[in-house]
Structures are given as C-alpha cells and as structure tokens.
Amino acid sequence: MEMLLEGLKKSELFADFPEEIVADCILPHRQIQEYRKGLCLIRPQQKVSRFGILLSGKINIMHIFMEGSYSLINALRPGEILGADLIFTRSQLSPYHAVTAADTRIAYFPAELATRPGMLPEIWRAVLTRQLAAWISNGNIKKEYRLAILSQKGLRERILMFLTLQASRRQTTSFAIPFSREELAAYLCVNRSALSRELSLMQEEGLITFQKNYFRLHFLKPAENGQILPY
Q1: In this predicted model, what pLDDT tens digit does every residue of 18-33 receive, in sequence order?
Q2: What is the pLDDT of residues 160-180, one digit of tens each?
Q3: In Å, what is the CA distance from 181 to each residue of 38, 40, 78, 131?
Q4: Does the pLDDT value for residue 47 go beyond 70?
Q5: Cα–Cα distance for residue pair 96/45, rounded to 1 Å
Q6: What's the rounded Cα separation, in Å, for the pair 8 and 6?
Q7: SS3 category, 14
C-alpha cells in the first residue's frame, strides 16, 4: 500500500493531494493491472471510461497502419496518465492505439471520480478535474509541437526542430529523449535507416554528439535567462 501511495503521489495528477485524501478517498477506487510488453491496451473506436496512472513501464500512443507501419504520437512514462484525453469527450471513443513498450503496471480509476459529484469531497474533485484538464492541455501543446515538426519538409529540418524543442523545454543542450531510434523515426514519420544516416552525418559535421538516446547539441547555447539560443 505504501509503495502504491508513493507511486501515485509522484504523478502530477495527485501531487497536490494530501496523503490521507489519496489513501482514504482515491485508493478505494483503484484497479491495478499488469501487462507484458507488446500488448495493445486501447484500439481505435474502443470506448474508454477510465484513466490510468502508469506505475511502471512504458506505453506508446500511436497510429498503426494496415501494412504494419506506425506513426508514434507520444510515449507515456511512469507517473503519466493513460486515457485522460478520452474520458471527457462525448463518445469516449479512442482514435489511436495504446501499446505497451515494456512490461507495464497501471493503477486505473473510473472517469466518474472526476465527472460525478459525490465520489470525492467536492473540493478535491475540483482539484482532480483541474489537474486532468492541465494534463490534457499540455498534451495538446505537445501535439502542436509535433505538427510543427512534421510541417518541415526535409529530414534534417525535422531533426533540428525536434532537438531544438527538446532543448527549449528542458532548458539544457544535453538531454535524453524518451524514444528509441525506431520510435524516433516513427515520431518524425521518416525511414529509420535514413534517420540513422542523417544523425551520423550531423555528428560528423559537429552539430551534435549522441550516444543511443542521449544527445548533446552544439548548434545551440544556453542563455543567462534560461532560454536556448542558436550559436
């Protein structure tokens, strides 16, 4: 119980909740489920009436096409929320696939916890609804960033914009990205081999250095106010 409580408190969703409220009012509604890597948890047109907090593992949000290729929308890590963007919609129908990218453990909660009066003290239901709304809003901003990246016509331009946005968000020019090389190619909607060649070429030209998913950018520099600027 203590490990579960600690895991939930690490989530942005419940970070502002007192432990006694989480223990007495939130946890009684939980449903814990464990999944192996490679399982599809949500499919297009599936109705979703609960949200889940990732306690461990990783979930890829993606579009899977008929020929077997896929486009990666987002990767959820421990503490992040599955299904929050669906439970407030009129139909609650998913437009995407959610697939485990590692062995995963999730604490599920019914949507009514946020949408129905009486399941929580009203003041804490309002906090929960506000936190879910903030999560959804942040997710929409991430989607706007991805649209901006995909609007770039060239492969290098997509890579540079992706890395620049990562650096700006983290306020550092050295960071690990949440994607493997295959996942990054799917996120950028490019060929994996072409992506690897271009990254190697950019490294040879001194624009970046990288090791697996860790990058150091040499075409940007941190400013005194925390912004990331081009050299």
Answers
A1: 989 999 999 999 999 9
A2: 999 999 998 888 999 999 999
A3: 17, 21, 20, 32
A4: yes
A5: 8
A6: 5
A7: coil
Residue with tokens 């550092």: 172
78 contacts 56 by C-beta, under 8 angstroms = yes
Instruction: Specify the amino acid at residue 12.
Output: E
How far, in Å, CA of 208 to CA of 215, rounded? Answer: 7
- The letter for the amino acid at 203 is Q
| pLDDT of 228 above 90 | no
In this structure, are residues 230 and 219 in contact, taking their beta carbons and an 8 Å threshold?
A: yes
List Cβ neighbours of 178 (8 Å cut-off, separation of 6 or more). Answer: 75, 77, 213
CA distance 177 to 206: 19
Q: Is the pLDDT of residue 226 over 60?
A: no
pTM summary value: 0.89
Place of tokens 């989530």: 11
